[in-house]
């Protein structure tokens, strides 16, 4: 029995050794006009506050940074809720928990140590979050919410002032859903707040329509912009309980039928690539801040869809950040029913998905 376990472990180790290589030593230098082809993952330790939710809040894990780097990637995005270090009560929005913020500092330090660019994102910012529950005040309409949002970003700017842009960047608001004028007003206020503290900080703004629509009227601010890679939703989010429109959707295929249209690589090029290339032509760097496929989509379908996405982004020179690393969209512990996982450091590794990601 022990011999069998030893042999199995040895075979897994040998297999994994063929898909790892040395960590990068020098991160590329980004500019708002040309973002590097950063490739990596979203880490969700501060995605929600407290001990409830799909990913309970906690400290980041050094082993994640080490594994991501050892597999040849160079980027992590940290989607965070301000409620991890501050109260949701507007009367106390500016009272910060230093102990929690030190955990973010640690993640930034690990990024430098392991050669990973760290992109800080306020997934929940005072006044707005794409996910429930709704914020007590409305960022797009209430000046108190905007003042608090500026306060939080100014604090982060002060905290990381002096860190080079190749190590740290800011992604202002996750997946805004509002009118263009309101969004531009808020973004300008946040940018002014950050640049009053750190004039050279690299700042990225998500597109409108949940990150899918480029915002040409922000081009004069010298920001990068972040898009998404979830289309079509009936492939990427099949079986996701939080997407009611897909409740009775049939099991997806790829190419897919969605919204009375056939979706394939050319559809993705036309709808999700070409509009952003027009933005890029104005001098705005583009990065795919989130993408991925929920674990209810058949694995073979997910991989075919993912490969078409990855090929398109490689053609354009855009980087990407998979949602997530560990979890239902990721390469570790994704709980897919149709995957033969490899045991790796006590976790279940989707080796086929990892190989695909490394290829592009």
From TrEMBL:
Domain called Glycoside hydrolase family: residue spans: 61-325
GO CC list: cell surface; extracellular region
GO MF annotation, one: beta-glucosidase activity
InterPro entries on file: GH (IPR017853), Glyco_hydro_5 (IPR001547), Glycosyl_hydrolase_5 (IPR050386)
Name used for this protein in its record: Glycoside hydrolase
Any Pfam family: Cellulase
This protein's UniProt keywords: Carbohydrate metabolism, Cellulose degradation, Glycosidase, Hydrolase, Polysaccharide degradation, Signal
GO biological process: cellulose catabolic process
Domain of life: Bacteria
Span of the signal peptide: 1-22
Source species of the chain: Spirosoma montaniterrae
UniProt similarity note: Belongs to the glycosyl hydrolase 5 (cellulase A) family.
């Amino acid at each position: 029995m022990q011999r069998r376990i030893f042999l199995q472990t040895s075979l897994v180790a040998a297999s994994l050794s063929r898909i790892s290589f040395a960590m990068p030593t020098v991160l590329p230098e980004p500019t708002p006009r040309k973002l590097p082809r950063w490739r990596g993952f979203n880490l969700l330790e501060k995605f929600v506050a407290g001990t409830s939710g799909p990913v309970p809040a906690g400290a980041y894990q050094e082993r994640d940074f080490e594994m991501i780097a050892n597999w040849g990637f160079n980027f992590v995005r940290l989607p965070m809720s301000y409620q991890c270090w501050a109260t949701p009560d507007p009367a106390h929005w500016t009272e910060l928990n230093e102990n929690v913020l030190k955990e973010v500092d640690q993640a930034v330090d690990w990024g430098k140590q392991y050669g990973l660019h760290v992109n800080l994102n306020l997934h929940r910012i005072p006044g707005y979050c794409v996910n429930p529950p709704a914020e007590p005040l409305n960022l797009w309409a209430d000046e108190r919410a905007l003042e608090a949002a500026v306060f939080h970003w100014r604090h982060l700017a002060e905290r990381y002032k002096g860190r080079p842009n190749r190590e740290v960047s800011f992604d202002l608001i996750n997946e805004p859903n509002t009118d263009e004028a309101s969004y531009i007003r808020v973004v300008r206020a946040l940018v002014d707040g950050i640049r009053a503290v750190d004039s050279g900080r690299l700042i990225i703004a998500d597109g409108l329509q949940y990150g899918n629509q480029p915002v040409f009227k922000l081009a004069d601010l010298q920001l990068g912009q972040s898009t998404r890679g979830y289309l079509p939703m009936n492939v990427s989010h099949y079986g996701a309980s939080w997407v009611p429109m897909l409740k009775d959707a049939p099991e997806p295929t790829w190419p897919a039928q969605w919204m009375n249209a056939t979706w394939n690589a050319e559809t993705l090029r036309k709808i999700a690539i070409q509009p952003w290339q027009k933005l890029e032509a104005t001098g705005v760097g583009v990065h795919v801040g989130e993408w991925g496929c929920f674990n209810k989509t058949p694995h073979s379908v997910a991989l075919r869809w993912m490969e078409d996405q990855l090929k398109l982004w490689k053609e354009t020179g855009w980087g990407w950040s998979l949602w997530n690393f560990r979890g239902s969209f990721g390469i570790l512990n994704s709980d897919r029913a149709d995957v033969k996982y490899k045991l790796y450091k006590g976790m279940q590794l989707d080796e086929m998905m990892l190989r695909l990601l490394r290829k592009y």
